[in-house]
Sequence to fold (796 residues):
Amino acid sequence: MKRLLRNVKYSMKSPNRILSLLLMAMCFSSCQKDKEAFVSGDPFWNDLKQIKVLDFESDSIPNAIKPFNANIQLTSGAGVTSGTKGLAVNLKWDENNTGFSYEPQTPIDVKDFKNLTLVFDATNTGDYSVHLMANVASSNGSDNYSSVALPIGKTNTVYLQLENLPLKKGTSDMRDYPDPWNTNSLKMVVRGLLHDAEYPDISKIALYSSKMIKDKSVVIDNIRLVDAPDRPEDYLVGIIDKYGQSAHIDFEGKIKSDQQLKSIADQELARLKKEGTMPGRSKFGGWVEGPQYEGTGYFTAKKVNGKWALIDPEGYVFFSSGIANVRMANTTTFTGRDFKNDTVRWRDPEDVTPEDSRGIVDLPKEVTSTSFISEPWRYEMFQELPTYDDPLANNFSYRREQHIGPFDHGETFSFYQANLERRYGEPTPNAHREKWVDVTLDRFLNWGFTSFGNWAGYEFYHENRMPYFANGWIIGEFQTVKSGMDYWGPLPDVFDPEFVRRAKVTVGVVAKEVKNNPWCVGVFIDNEKSWGRAGSVPNLYGIVFDALSKDVNESFIKKEFSNKLKGKYEDIGLLNKAWGKDLASWAEFDNGVNYKGDGTFSDEMVADLSDCMFAYAERYFQVVHDALEDVMPNHMYMGCRFATWGLTPEVRSAAKKYVDVFSINYYEEGIGKKYWTFLEEMDAPVVIGEWHVGTTATGVYHPGIVHAATREDRAQMYKDYLQSVIDNPYMVGAHWFQYIDSPTTGRAHDGENYNVGFVSTTDVPYPEMVEAVKEMHTNLYEDRYGDASDRVVASN
Fold:
């Protein structure tokens, strides 16, 4: 635009003044349109009771605003929606958090607000969508973490409901709900779990982004606290149609008839048959045009030209690009009904399958005849469920428990599997399941995936068309220990002999399922264990603190740690001196000591806590490794799929001794630099076990953990993330989570209702994602291990 203005100024000296004036008019018209494109505040909030928090109209930024890892300044340009100024925020890539906080000297009194809502205008002035997060806190300890995706080049009014009242038992049946008022604003969705919260005041508002892979910029204006209208009592009634879709939201690709569903399926099947498998791959999906090493008959790992790689059974270089959770187990959602016949709630004490990994449970007539509506508010969400004598009734199932949510147990239904029957018919029992296996494999091979991720359905194990990873969970009645951040539950006492026995039982079942199949790349055991979190001694060594608080006569881990410390400190006085304590005897220590709440910890004590933590982790990985080595010696041990909030130095060091490939679930925009500095020291192959990007532009109420603004933006963010993995020399694969969108009303396990699938709940692939993945996979091996000049153009 500046260049155009310079040209206009120059042309005014020429004889053609009419043309010059025309160009200037066009310029100012374009500028005005650009400005109008940014300003689009939602008037829905204007006449409601509210408190203006910040409008940035003063000559300087208020002292109560503090930037962190970001540059902020007042601006009078694009993005100003109230008055003449706004706050421009330049967000920095690769920072853990980058943004600003506002902490008023006196908390803002909002006791008279019934439906407290934070509202502000946000303008994305950069070249990439912005996943903007918010933390709003009260002086009473209540807080809310939420986020939203800001589209490029637009101003949007954003709102955050601060008093999200779940329907029952202090937690929600879904991770978030639809907009109750049908506003033109962007709704921030909760990060984590909806929970009861009371806000007598507001002591802090923070707006920020996290671990971006590019610098980004936003303008924030007109921050206010609004007393929102009451949500209509019936706004959740009938929100789900017979296909499991949002009934009241229209979106691209929405299914409106069985015939439409069948027609889409027929077209896709014809296209898959015509296009076939992506070329350039070995039998097992390796790089057939790349170097070939001596094959072992099974998958292994080695360095290739300074980069870690997997090697397929025939010796070809292999990179594991796949999708996790390709199974039916997580496609069910609670219906709000239950059964008086309690035979459906019986469980075998020797069962090795966790509740969330069970598939459809057969419900005989003697069970369904005792059906009753246990949760009317939930049952009323569905416009239409099959009757028990309907052909689609075989998609009802049962959950005996819910990990997180308001249900103790209850009936479930899989809309996804019902839609498969509608797509493919059911000429013989389970024909749709068999068709699903074939179509899924055809899709993966056509799209260029080289493997499944974790949690592939057992039905794929011996198709011998796509490499997969086996998995198992060590569950049972062994003693446990808590880290203090036990989202998925307490951890095992690994010194309990029952844990060792159950590990062998679990691995034995996995071995029987795999049958020494060379298509099995490796084995994942357990998932996202809460080992500890950096930041404080109590968080980092919570497991050790919990163990020390136990009675030595009742706890295997306490006995182990007690003996370990007695071996180092023969006299209790030596321990007291090192730790700064005043214990009368070892007997007092053995009865249980609780030091987690202490404010300070000596260097010697921290070193001992670290040693105990290493001993605990080492024992865990050794037990699992040895169990696998006994019955599955040909398959790699892929670890426990670490979460970033549980990957501590001691655990990394212990795991390095026993795992063949590290698996880390990493839900961010991509692989940056700062978090991953430990890779050089560890020098081991790493696979990303889970990652995803979602958007609400698909009719699903929650995008997932990482947000995109549009479907096209989602596809671009997929490419950016995968490219960052390909560019990292330690990474040997990345597994997207997951194949199928979560049920719109939340998966039965924990209420996740995320747009994280490559296919919708109607089994229709998202074309933007298919195009993106084929583009990336066409040059996957050349990008990773070859010459960039070898790139070819992807075919759609």
In short: Confidence is low (pLDDT under 50) at residues 1-39, 788-796. The radius of gyration is 28 Å. Residues 112 and 200 are 8 Å apart (CA to CA).
